[in-house]
């Protein structure tokens, strides 16, 4: 029995000595993911506190500028280009870390999260830190996987699903109007009704809902153009113009809400075009799926936004 006790004590001493002489004072742990998201949209999510709040696990967020996960506290520090400095408080020790971002393609971003775990010089704490490094590596990988899951959904990045298709409606009639105020529903549907009256007088048919494009030139000047797709070519008539969309590719998304929602959706199409380095032969427009003149509740308005691309 005494001999067994001696062996146990010797083993423990040997383990402590090995920890002191063999284990380093620090070691890097690394996690990596590749996400199908433009680096332009990844950067705000990883370089800003409010960006972290969007993808960080819901039940592990902190009330201040730090973030908690699995007992460790993460701090977002300074940002330098595509490198995000982060600190991790683990076992009452601050471990320096960094997140490195690199685009591997137009629609792909590689992300590496590296943290230098601190073992210290005390052999006991060295052993404790050594065995907890695998947990930290697992946590880093889990967090990056959660980020990839969030960033991989277009609804989280652009507020809607953006699809690509071919232009279907190429023929339309259109009218313009210049206003000294933000266009109202009445302003828009005044033009819609004039176009519908003309279409009926020519025994033509509408093929899709009215289309709207708005330009804001200064604080008091707005120009709207309203078009209605039709089944055959019609001649121009005074302020009513004949228009033909360029055949080719188009991207589109659908949103619900009033003017601010539509304006934001159009801006997101612009962001998508920039992110994926697309060109455009024509202006974007909104297709008014819901008849706003009959539905006053803007929360029920459905709009499809379109942007011709090549």
What does this entry look like structurally?
α1 crosses α4 and α2 packs across α3. β2 and β3 form a beta hairpin. The protein is about 35% helix and about 35% strand. About 5% of the residues have low confidence.
Structural class: alpha+beta
Strand order of the largest sheet: 7-12-14-13-9-10-8-11
Number of helices: 7
How widely separated are the two ends? Answer: 83 Å
Annotated CATH architecture of the largest domain: Alpha-Beta Barrel
Q: CATH top level of the largest domain?
A: Alpha Beta
Helix/strand order, N-terminal first: HEHHEEEEEHHEEHEEEEHEE
Map the helices and strands.
Layout: H1 2-21, E1 26-35, H2 39-47, H3 49-55, E2 66-69, E3 72-80, E4 83-90, E5 93-105, E6 108-118, H4 123-151, H5 154-158, E7 163-166, E8 171-179, H6 185-201, E9 211-218, E10 221-229, E11 241-244, E12 249-256, H7 259-275, E13 285-288, E14 302-309
Antiparallel strand pairs: 1-6, 2-3, 3-4, 4-5, 5-6, 7-12, 8-10, 8-11, 9-10, 9-13, 12-14, 13-14
Helix pairs in contact: 1-4, 2-3
Task: Please sum up the structure shown.
This protein has 7 helices and 14 strands. It has 310 residues and is an alpha+beta fold. A hairpin with a 2-residue loop joins strand 5 and strand 6.
Features of this protein?
310 residues; alpha+beta; Alpha-D-Glucose-1,6-Bisphosphate, Chain A, domain 4; Multidrug-efflux Transporter 1 Regulator Bmrr, Chain A; 2 domains; 8-stranded antiparallel beta sheet; 7 helices; 14 strands; 35% strand
